[in-house]
Structures are given as structure tokens and as C-alpha cells.
């Protein structure tokens, strides 16, 4: 059977004094064999041998005997990538073919030796079996294996009280020896702004020369990545603007809302003050349903930092 069909099932029961017949329609479903193509590598160099295998499995995932009508190795004629949907495809050149190959209930293993001057690009192994087609693509190109590998070991979390962030940079050749060179480190903190202005990220850069880069330890001052010293209620702002008190006492969204409105009074013009008041009200309404204490604390701290940055920005313009 090569396709699913609906059949009539008739059951008749006869006795000494009765006869009963029941008829039902049942679907006899056909499950075709599934074929797969595997290559030993995804990328080949010109002149290498492509080893591949074709396996056909039955409905119980057991290797089945398969008779493959045609197995072809195709390469594109043009640089435009086209999928094989016809047989043969006009955009493909056939460079290898196997006819009526059989697996005999096992895995069919084949190979093809590429010419040293073969064209680089994508190749396709096309397998036809009882009108069904299975394709497997691989690439031919001249590539160079990496000579060394760089690994970076950093802690997942860093305490705010820690003065330095320690990390290990390891560069080793494929045969295990360390690599001489220079380490260029860039660490950035990308703050999220809850107001309309986008705060630029704070970055730390360092170049460190080493005879070898095997577990080269690099220390970064965490103070560079923190915003120490300035906010509306902790220290004075540049430009002669008066500080506000109470930033360190904020614990609830309502207290933060009132604090930010007080900060708006330090802005230079009524239009700017009105602009930020509107932004603060929108942000307050969007976060009014927050009930996670840790999340609320994070929002409060970031909003204070944002407000400090905005006030500092306008103070510099004076």
C-alpha cells in the first residue's frame, strides 16, 4: 500500500436464531519511510573527500531497506541561492550521481572526492526515493582554522562595596601554549532611564601588555562605573543649584513622586519644568501597580540618579 485509503469493515455474527451485521468505515493510514542525509563535516576544503550517509527509518525508527532511485551531488550554476524543487533543477550542475543504490536494511555510506580546483560555494546532496526528495547542503570554501582561542572569566555578580572587579583573560594556541600580546578591556554600564532623556553609558577602557596572556588578571575600579557623590539630596550640584534633602529617605513611590516634582523646581525655565513634570506623572502612572519591593527599590534608585543627571545637564548650560 502506497497511500492512505478508507475501507469498509463488515462484521457479521450469526447464531441459531439470529444474524447481526455491522458495517464501519475505517481509515488505513499509510506512513511513508523517512530518509535522512548526513555529512561528516559542514564545510570542506577544495580537494577533500565528502563522506556522507543516507539512512531510511520506518515508523518505529528502525533502519529499513531502502531503494534510492537517484542520488545526485549538485552545485549551483549562479550565485543566486535557489532551493531544489524540481528534478532535475535548471539552476544546478550535476557533478556526481548514484543510480538504484540500496541500503539493504542498514545505512548507505557514500563518498565523493572534490577536485582541488572545484568552485567554492554551496553544494547539495539530493536523494530521490519513490518520488520523495531529501536534500542536504554543505559548503566548500578555503578556510583557515583558528590558531588560538581567547576565554574570559568574570564573576556573575559583584558587590557594590567591592572596590575592584577582577577578571581573568586566557589566550592559548590550539596546541596549549600561551599567546603573547595585549589585552584591550572595555566594560560599560548601560543605565535604564525612566525619564525622557537617554543617559549615556559609563565605560571603562584599559589596555594591558603582557608577555603571555595566560590567565592575565585585570582589575577594574568599580568607582569608575558607579555614579558617586551627586544627587538631589546628598551633595551639591554644579552650577550653583541648591541641593534638596531627603533623597536617602525615599522608600515608597509616592515619596519618589513628590521628590522628583521638587527637583523640577530647580530646572531653569517653566517650559522645561512642565515637560519633566508631565514625564514624571506618566512614569508614576505606568509603575503604580508595582508590588515587588526589590523592583520598587531599584526604580527609586535609578529615578534619583536620572534626576541628578538631568539637573547636572542643565546646570552645565548656564
TrEMBL record:
Q: Where is the Complex 1 LYR protein domain?
A: 252-304
Instruction: Say if the entry is tagged with keyword Glycoprotein.
Output: yes
Recorded hits in InterPro entries, A to Z, give: Complex1_LYR_dom, Complex1_LYR_LYRM9, Complex_I_LYR, MG2, MG3
Q: Does this UniProt record's set of keywords contain Nucleotidyltransferase?
A: no
**Record domain Macroglobulin: where:** 35-140, 142-193
Q: Which UniProt keywords apply?
A: Glycoprotein, Protease inhibitor, Serine protease inhibitor, Signal
* UniProt GO molecular function: serine-type endopeptidase inhibitor activity
Q: Record's Pfam families?
A: Complex1_LYR (PF05347), MG2 (PF01835), MG3 (PF17791)
* Family as reported in the entry's similarity comment: Belongs to the protease inhibitor I39 (alpha-2-macroglobulin) family.
User: Know the name of this protein?
Assistant: LYR motif-containing protein 9
| Organism of this sequence | Takifugu flavidus (sansaifugu)
Amino acid at each position: 500500500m502506497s497511500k492512505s485509503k478508507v475501507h469498509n469493515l463488515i462484521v457479521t455474527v450469526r447464531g441459531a436464531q439470529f444474524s447481526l451485521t455491522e458495517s464501519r468505515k475505517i481509515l488505513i493510514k499509510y506512513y511513508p519511510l523517512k530518509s535522512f542525509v548526513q555529512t561528516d563535516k559542514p564545510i570542506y576544503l577544495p580537494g577533500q573527500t565528502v563522506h556522507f550517509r543516507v539512512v531510511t527509518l520506518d515508523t518505529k525508527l528502525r533502519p529499513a531497506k531502502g531503494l534510492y532511485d537517484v542520488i545526485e551531488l549538485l552545485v549551483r550554476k549562479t550565485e543566486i541561492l535557489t532551493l531544489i524543487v524540481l528534478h532535475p533543477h535548471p539552476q544546478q550542475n550535476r557533478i556526481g550521481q548514484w543510480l538504484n543504490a540500496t541500503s539493504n536494511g542498514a545505512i548507505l555510506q557514500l563518498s565523493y572526492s572534490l577536485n582541488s580546483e572545484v568552485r567554492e560555494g554551496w553544494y547539495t546532496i539530493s536523494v530521490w526515493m519513490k518520488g520523495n526528495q531529501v536534500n542536504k547542503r554543505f559548503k566548500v570554501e578555503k578556510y583557515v582554522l583558528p590558531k588560538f582561542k581567547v576565554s574570559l572569566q568574570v564573576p556573575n555578580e559583584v558587590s557594590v562595596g567591592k572596590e575592584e572587579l577582577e577578571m581573568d583573560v586566557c589566550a592559548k594556541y590550539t596546541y596549549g601554549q600561551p599567546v603573547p600580546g595585549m589585552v584591550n578591556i572595555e566594560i560599560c554600564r548601560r543605565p535604564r532611564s525612566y525619564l525622557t532623556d537617554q543617559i549615556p553609558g559609563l565605560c571603562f577602557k584599559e589596555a594591558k601588555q603582557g608577555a603571555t596572556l595566560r590567565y592575565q588578571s585585570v582589575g577594574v575600579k568599580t568607582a569608575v562605573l558607579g555614579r558617586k557623590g551627586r544627587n538631589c539630596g546628598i551633595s551639591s550640584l554644579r552650577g550653583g543649584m541648591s541641593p534638596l534633602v531627603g533623597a536617602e529617605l525615599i522608600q515608597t513611590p509616592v515619596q519618589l513622586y513628590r521628590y522628583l516634582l521638587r527637583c523640577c523646581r530647580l530646572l531653569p525655565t517653566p517650559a522645561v519644568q512642565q515637560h519633566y513634570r508631565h514625564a514624571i506623572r506618566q512614569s508614576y502612572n505606568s509603575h503604580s501597580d508595582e508590588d515587588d519591593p526589590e523592583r520598587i527599590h531599584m526604580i527609586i534608585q535609578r529615578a534619583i540618579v536620572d534626576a541628578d543627571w538631568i539637573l547636572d545637564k542643565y546646570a552645565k548650560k548656564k
